[in-house]
Write a structure and sequence with these properties.
Elements (H helix, E strand, L loop, with lengths): L6 E5 L5 E7 L7 E5 L7 H15 L10 E5 L8 E10 L8 E9 L2 H5 L1 H11 L4 E6 L12 E6 L6 E5 L2 E5 L14 H8 L6 E5 L5 H8 L4 E6 L2 H13 L6 E5 L2 H10 L4 E6 L11 H18 E11 L6 H15 L3 E7 L18 E7 L1
Parallel strand pairs: 6-7, 11-12, 11-14, 12-13, 14-15
Antiparallel strand pairs: 1-2, 2-3, 4-5, 5-6, 5-9, 7-8, 9-10, 15-17, 16-17
The structure holds S-adenosyl-L-homocysteine.
Length: about 375
């Protein structure tokens, strides 16, 4: 009977060792393997594992100049740990010492939560002067018997952190923003969407802090209507638009997305480009059918608002709602809307969120770009 959070050996059916894992009898995921070699999950382990994760990302990114996800849990061999790195300027700070790096961490399993000190020591060694925020306010912690925790673990929180993405500036709220403060996984999809935006009127649904819409404005969109149900998110979107010189071209609308699309349909509004980036509708397998109805309703309504030849950028971040399901849903929506789709791009999350075999949950974000005839 190992203690909760203890390091345990995992054996296969023939009693041959597979690796070492962190044990949690209270979780349905009883043991999470962190190494094939027999070693302790101490600060040296975390330092090496995090350094490996960073080294892989250097192929695609410059971690010293760009904000990115440094550690993506199981996909980086560190189950239950997420670390995002935000490189930017603290607004209001004197320009000489304004720049810097802040980390935002989520400890999502008991084993990781109990090793916070070791992880912090590894992170502080790799990034000596970085502030570190904890954003363990994810509901998945309840499945591990953990309560939510938010706060500062090291250094100071920046006054108002502004990062750069695809050549644009965005404010990131490390403590108060959603998830770790910014949806880094959509970086490449924002740039991809912007390629279709020139001369078009854009509807950015589930806009959060305006990442997609502002990328479209920078690429020549005539106007963006940005919709979200969260007032803080809309405020951030408006400020971000202003920060990039597009204050007069972005209008925010506080609304439930489903209601807003219906309203636009009634008032016969038309758009040249629509982005749908909803939260995960299916958090588990049992929720897939209900999620299908939700996604279809959204996509059907959006297709009806598109002018002929208009572009729909439609996303789902539910692993459980897979690519085949997503395509089937879109086919149904197209049929019901009487629109013929040309599938232009089938995209996933950006490369700082690696997809690995044996861990299907790492294949989660779908971003389809289609043209509606
Ligand atoms: N597109 C954003 C990320 C979207 S996250 C980006 O590029 O960063 C999902 C967003 O949907 C959140 O901002 C959340 O506030 C919003 N949201 C959730 N349910 C909603 C609903 N029913 N109607 C409108 N917005 C909703």
């Amino acid at each position: 009977m190992p203690e909760p959070g203890a390091e345990v050996e995992v054996l296969d059916a023939r009693k041959l060792p597979i690796g070492v894992a962190l044990y949690n009898p209270a979780s349905r995921i009883r043991a999470r393997i962190y190494s094939r070699a027999f070693r302790s999950a101490d600060s040296a382990f975390f330092r090496e594992a995090i350094a490996r994760a960073i080294a892989w990302r250097r192929r695609f990114f410059d971690p010293d100049a760009q904000s990115l996800r440094l550690v993506f849990g199981e996909a980086d061999g560190i189950p239950g740990l997420i670390v995002d790195s935000f490189v930017g300027q603290a607004e209001g700070a004197s320009s000489s010492r304004a720049g810097g790096r802040w980390l935002s961490a989520q400890f999502l399993s008991l084993g990781m939560d109990m090793r916070k000190a070791e992880i912090l020591s590894a992170l502080s060694e790799l990034f000596p002067s970085s502030g570190i925020a904890e954003r363990s306010d994810s509901p998945v912690r309840a499945h591990e018997g953990l309560s939510e925790a938010v706060g500062l673990l090291a250094g100071e929180a920046p006054e108002g952190l502004v990062i750069r993405e695809n050549g644009l500036s965005f404010a990131v709220d490390l403590i108060g923003g959603q998830k770790t403060g910014w949806f880094l996984d959509q970086r490449a999809n924002r740039a991809a969407s912007a390629r279709y935006a020139s001369g078009r009127r854009v509807l950015d649904v589930f806009c959060n802090a305006g990442g997609f819409g502002i990328a479209c404005l920078a690429a020549g969109a005539t106007e963006v209507v940005a919709v979200d149900s969260s007032v803080p998110a809309l405020k951030a979107a408006a400020t971000n638009a202003e920060r990039n010189g597009f204050a007069s071209k972005l209008r925010t609308e506080e609304a439930n997305a489903f209601d807003y699309l219906r309203l636009m349909e009634r008032s016969k509004e038309r758009f040249g480009l629509i982005i749908l980036d909803p939260p995960a509708f299916a958090k588990n397998h049992a929720a897939v059918e209900a999620a299908h109805r939700g996604y279809k309703d959204l996509n059907l309504r959006a297709l009806k608002l598109l002018e002929p030849g208009g572009i729909l950028v439609t996303c789902s971040c539910s692993h459980w709602f897979g690519q085949e399901r997503f395509t089937a849903m879109l086919e149904e929506a197209a049929r019901d809307a009487g629109r013929r789709l040309r599938y232009v791009e089938e995209r996933a999350q950006d490369l700082d969120h690696p997809i690995v075999s044996g861990y299907g949950e790492s294949r989660y974000l779908k971003c389809m770009i289609v043209e509606a005839g």
